[in-house]
Amino acid sequence: MEGEVMNTHYPWLTFYEAAVLETDPLVLPGRIEAAQNAIGQRVIQIAIDDEERRAVVKTLNALAVLKRERAPYKVAAHHN
């Protein structure tokens, strides 16, 4: 998703943006979880179109990378 501009503003995108922009390593895991939950709620509420489904998949993948690569490193660095 990095470098990619979405033409549509999905309601859950705000939560993703908050996670990506979070600089506090202690707050980041909560932001990631909030984004994942918002996406999950959207997916189970109604049928979504193919464009949004693709955006959901890309966003969930990006959140997983963020969680795996950025959050643990920052927290570990914060405690040293």
Structure description:
- With 80 residues, this protein is mostly helical.
- The chain has one domain (13-79).
- The protein has three helices and no strands.
- It has helices at residues 13-21, 28-45, 50-79.
- α2 runs antiparallel to α3.
- It is elongated.
- The termini are far apart.
Defining traits:
single chain, 80 residues, mainly alpha, 0% strand, elongated
Strand content: under 5%
Helices and strands: which structural class?
A: mainly alpha
Order of helices and strands: HHH
What's the helix count? 3
The total count of strands amounts to 0
Helix content: over 70%
How many structural units, i.e. domains? Answer: 1
The radius of gyration over CA amounts to: 13 Å
Report the principal-axis shape. elongated
Mean pLDDT: 80
